[in-house]
Design goal:
It is a single chain. With about 110 residues, this protein is α+β, with helices and mostly antiparallel strands. It has a single domain (about 5-105), classed as YaeB-like fold. The protein is built from three helices and seven strands. The protein has a five-stranded mixed sheet. Strands 3-4 form a two-stranded antiparallel sheet.
């Protein structure tokens, strides 16, 4: 079963800031992950996030494209088969998590 992807409005800008190669890799990863976006402890691809450096991302998950340095933060909507993408970004000193926290607060997620 495939989950529906929903994106915050800012994610389009995140995606457009990636190189074409990084966009293709992100597309490929999201296509695979939406088949099983559950946390890794439930057999899925997502790695649970928690409290880190003053940010509370408990209940959110991440996937990494290690070779590209890209991280995607998302939240599952377990009442349906929806996966809300919070941010897509390059790994730069935890910046992606700061952006995720800001958007979570802004949208009261």
């Amino acid at each position: 079963m495939s989950w529906e992807l929903i994106y915050l409005p800012e994610v389009e800008g995140d995606y457009n800031n990636l190189s074409r190669r990084q966009q293709l890799m992100t597309d490929k990863m999201l296509k695979r992950v939406k088949e099983n976006p559950l946390p890794s402890n439930e057999g899925g691809y997502g790695k649970p996030l928690g409290h880190k450096r003053g940010r509370n991302l408990t209940g959110y998950l991440k996937i990494k494209l290690r070779g590209e340095g890209i991280r995607i933060v998302y939240k599952l909507k377990r009442t349906a088969t929806k996966m809300l993408v919070i941010v897509i970004g390059l790994r730069e000193d935890e910046e992606v998590y700061e952006i995720a926290q800001e958007r979570i607060n802004r949208y009261k997620l």
